[in-house]
Fold these 4 entries.
Entry 1:
Amino acid sequence: MSTADIKKTAETKMGRTIESFKGELQKIRTGRAHPGMLDQIHVDYYGSPVPLSQVAQLSLLDARTIGVQPWEKPMISKVEKAIRESDLGLNPSTTGEIIRVPMPALTEERRKDLTKVVKGLGEDSKVAVRNLRREANEHGKKLLKDKEVTEDEERRLVDDIQKLTDRTIAEIDKLVQTKETEILAV
């Protein structure tokens, strides 16, 4: 493994960390409805847990309401129960074949709690990035120890990895700031 491989691997893994963080941020509701909020809900489909999006069509009925239309009629009650029992605090209601999921307005206290959750997720992502930095630096030291690279190359690798880490952490901070602003906007 060369220093270029180590840099490329670290860059790829840090990119995945950011994508994962973005996915986590999407699950946090801001008062506006979007179908992605229901992605982590699983429904009992003939004995096996299946993601909600695989048993129903999810759509926006208006800015604060998600419409869920199960593919099969017998699934309506199971889907409604799964949404109600999720930890999202949603209260669906069935009207014929469509389940309406209104987004409750966020209280000021709940908004502050959500910003704390966002900051916590941001910190977890930063820790993951720092662990990737440490891992890459250890690979560089191993190459130096095995005399596969010179000290200058190893030092350059450490500097490049640090710059990559700083850029990635700055992007995470920017995402946290954007999400906080979104949550606190009334």
Entry 2:
Amino acid sequence: MADLKLEREFPTTRENLFAWISDGAKLFQWWGPEGVHVPEHDLNFSRTGPWYSIMKNAEGQTFKVSGHVTHVDPPNSVGFTWAWHDDQDQRGPESHVTFSVVATENGARLVLDHRELADAEAAANHNMGWTSSLAKLEAQFG
């Protein structure tokens, strides 16, 4: 098992940053790595329950991920399970993601914890994907 932790600072309030990581309409604007669009989803991390997204890259490949929102604690944190689907739409190994928001002197910090990944390779792949997605979130505040 491997874990991944990323942190980013944003020039905004905790409450506004929390909205960007929980509200489906805002979340949809930065969800998925750069160069990928999301033609189908049920992204709503403002309530507990199931979620999914289908991402499509420029070559037309699709990638489905789904899980269950396990907790919502505005404006502090939201947690959810995460599992990729294979070509037969079967869910693979499940991991857990927590987005935490902390007030800072100049705004708010997002702490992304992705735990229980299968191995170091999975952690490295998720690091690239989350880093790219967070760049899209940062652009919302640019």
Entry 3:
Amino acid sequence: MAGLELLYSSVAGSITCPQDVIVCFVHWEIVKSGYKCLGLGDEPRSGDKKSELLPTGWNGSKELYTLRYKSNDDKSIFLVKAITVDSTLIFNLMDSATEQVSDLTMNVSDYVDADHLQTFESVFKNAEDLSQKVKSQLLPSVPAPRKEDKRSREKSDNSQPDSDPLRIPTRHPQTSRQPNWPDPMAPFAAGGADLDPFSGRGGGMIVDPLRAGYPRSGFDPSGGLPGILPPGAVPPGARFDPFGPVGRHRPGPDPDHMPPPGYDDMFM
């Protein structure tokens, strides 16, 4: 239990009862977990300073011990109280950030030899059991401060996905083999040929019979349609969908010239 002897030696002159011994031991376990003591009492004080040592006057009251702790990374603060009830010592720990509470109750005589309060080698009984009890019952709610040294940070920064020699590289399909799909986030991706008819892309619902790929030699809608539209009725270059056949005469019979046989038959 490295460090406990030095801590105990620094306060041995002020230890006057078995409860002091247990509070000193719990303080040591908290310091080992990555915390330092700020001072006495429930509220912060102007002279608070983080220290691994117990503050002056820490055992001024044998019925109630109150100590405050702060993590080494300054992200966690909690309050520890120890209450003496007959031969029992009850610890209560509250994390001020999360308001999580844990407690520990123990029989002082099970862990302290009251006849050797000033002798470190003889004062503790069942020290390993006491340490396990403090860690499992009082300190589980205490978040362990994150420890990250310079070497681990550099290793993390220099670690790249392709630096592992055993890593199987990701297979990327050849760009030339990928279909030329339109970008799904483009503003005219859906119905683009209709929304932007001048984009040059194929498809769409807008059909110009005069520009559908069929030969229309010599026909200019701006010159008018004989017997239908006078010249100049269609502006030059305008898009025009004729409402009738181009030219006055169509080859073959007119299907609308005569009604079919039985035209007046309602069951036809």
Entry 4:
Amino acid sequence: MNEKDAIKRLREGDKTAFKYLFELFYDRLVAYILTYTNDKMLAEDIVQQVFLNLWNGRAKLNEIKNPKSYLYTMVYNLFIDSRKHEKKVNKLLDNIYEKALRERIKEDKSLIDLRIKKMNAIIETLPPKCREILKMNKVQGFKYKEIAEILGISIKTVENQMGLAYKKVRKAFENPSLILFLIKSRNLLKFN
């Protein structure tokens, strides 16, 4: 049996003709498409799909003058189709990833906003002098020595007040229920 006879007999449903073509071309086609894919499993999947398509479409086969070229073309075309499909899937996955990332950024912004609200609520509960020193340092950018000169107090007093402020902020962030209480209290004070 030769390739052309095998195609004619395949058209009639001859399984031995199919087996003949499979055994003759399978390894060659895998090696050929492997040069494009660099992935043996993918190359084997493509070639197996081509033979499956060949068997399922056998009744539609017209006279094929060069079965070898026909099979190589089928394998190459299926490879190209799989690449297009892969690109579509990757694009879809990229879009999903980008959307998830945008959502995450929005969530992170919400968390930052919440942390700022928490921080402001905590700062508002500090004693007036401590709050003033903290704001002068962190908001206005004054150094401890400058704050001491402006307020007419010692640098040690500024350091102690800043230490007190840091301690209360840390403690509040360690205790979430305290933060919620402070935020609610602050909001109640604003509305009353």
